[in-house]
Design goal:
Chain lengths: ~260, ~260
DNA sequence: TGTCTATTTCGTAGTTTTTACTAAATAAAA
DNA sequence: TTTTATTTAGTAAAAACTACGAAATAGACA
């Protein structure tokens, strides 16, 4: 969706390709080193920061649509994605504040209040997690900026997106305590320090440097490899990989990570 | 919505009052004695069992809409209600199988495939819990029966409603392990046996008769009253009530009930 | 070749929580 | 008064968790 013709077609005929009245918003969490970030876009029309979002094609499942949206903003496909809540407060979108002139300035197109985009919308929230250093943030049609913010330095957000982030963070952390995470988020082979740091970053709290890895091992989630990694003037850590069978079982039945 | 005129108005102009393309389906769980049940309705048009559902008024929040739907089917308002998942598979509603003749026979009205009701719909799932003996099940406009089924004797269900029940049950049980439940679901004063039986019924598993109540007490959730209840030729149980402060704190911060 | 340093990782003691079970208490019926 | 069913206190053993000390060790550096 880049050419003027495509944009015009989206505005005029989008309701034939997409399901009207329903959108998806994505809380895309990024970690790297010890920092947790979230990806935001700056909406052209209301001149404020929002979660990346989009509409659902009539042929798509919800998770497929969320995956498409996340890929368009980050360049990364097949991320861990989970639905966390659906938002439908009638006042959430503030469609009464629609500004025809701003829209015209930004797109060069005249649309009216009867356009399918300017109507009450219920939004399904998804969160995803990725290594932000591997992403290439890109604004969408409606936005003029797209970048990562430290999770504790998020600017003022439009609509109900602040609440969305809080809900997403809460759901993600509850999930993290009950299911292993890391497959597709760590390299195939990794050290205990690496998975320890990942969990600390996502949970936003300290985990015992010795007991936490021991717990993962005692649950049978990790398989110790004979290889080591040389990373400095000190004892080299062993490499581990996930025991896929135990990992999948834990995803299905749940575990408790303290 | 009972008169023919009201039904006709709903079919022709419902999209003005309700948000099109979005519905709510409710998994209404009922307990009594030691039995867990679920409320189902029998759809007139496809002649099959479904979860009770409905549309969202443009002025309503999602939870308010769910509350209205639950009250219409059970006669009970202000139930514990929680969103569990939103369903949007493009094939979930099978709108291609729409039968104009069946619809005419049931309602006396001719509607076409272009009617707002016959279009792709994304459904927000809520579950609720109530004492089924206090309910008065009532079918809706689209159904000719509405009754409780034992949770392990659910008939074949239409659409994706079997998956919905499974997801609802799973979410409800996970919730139950992490938050206290029972306020508004037990009388103000109750015995340890009563809350023990409620949890066993909802979780579908045995809980230790001595340790489970002790856990609740050690968490400070219950306040022992001086009154007792006489219920047979044996030691009379003490009555308890919830410590509202501790209960609300547990709802907010979570607890672990094993 | 030895020390030094930073980090990994093993071991374990002390504590808390959970689990399983026993037995005392007791209200009403026989 | 005895019997019976249930509530509920008590506790021993097992398991899990926590905190922390110390051994192992790879590379830097003298």
């Amino acid at each position: 969706m880049d050419t003027q013709a495509e944009i015009e077609d989206f505005l005029l005929n989008g309701h034939l390709q997409y399901v009207p009245h329903v959108s998806i918003d994505c809380a895309i969490f990024g970690y790297h080193g010890q920092q947790l970030k979230i990806l935001l876009i700056r909406n052209k029309f209301i001149q404020g920061w929002c979660l990346p979002g989009g509409y659902i094609k009539r042929t798509e499942t919800l998770v497929k649509a969320a995956n498409r949206i996340v890929k368009e903003r980050t360049g990364i496909g097949n991320l861990f994605l989970q639905q966390f809540k659906t938002f439908g407060d009638p006042n959430r979108a503030r469609i009464n504040e629609f500004d025809e002139e701003l829209w015209y300035k930004a797109t060069g197109l005249r649309i009216t209040k009867t356009n399918w985009l300017i109507d009450q919308t219920i939004s399904v929230g998804f969160y995803s997690i990725t290594d932000f250093s591997k992403s290439t943030p890109k604004p969408d049609l409606m936005s003029d900026d797209c970048k990562w913010f430290d999770i504790d330095r998020v600017p003022k957000l439009e609509f109900d997106h602040k609440e969305m982030i809080q809900e997403a963070l809460h759901t993600m952390r509850v999930y993290l305590y009950h299911y292993p995470i890391g497959y597709n988020m760590l390299p195939e082979k990794f050290t205990l320090s690496e998975i320890h740091a990942l969990y600390e970053t996502l949970l936003g709290k300290k985990l015992d440097v010795s007991n936490f890895p021991k717990k993962l091992i005692s649950l049978g989630l990790l398989k110790k490899l004979s290889e080591k990694r040389s990373i400095g003037p000190h004892r080299s850590p062993h490499l581990y990989k996930f025991d896929k069978t135990a990992y999948d079982k834990a995803l299905k039945e749940g575990v408790v990570l303290t």
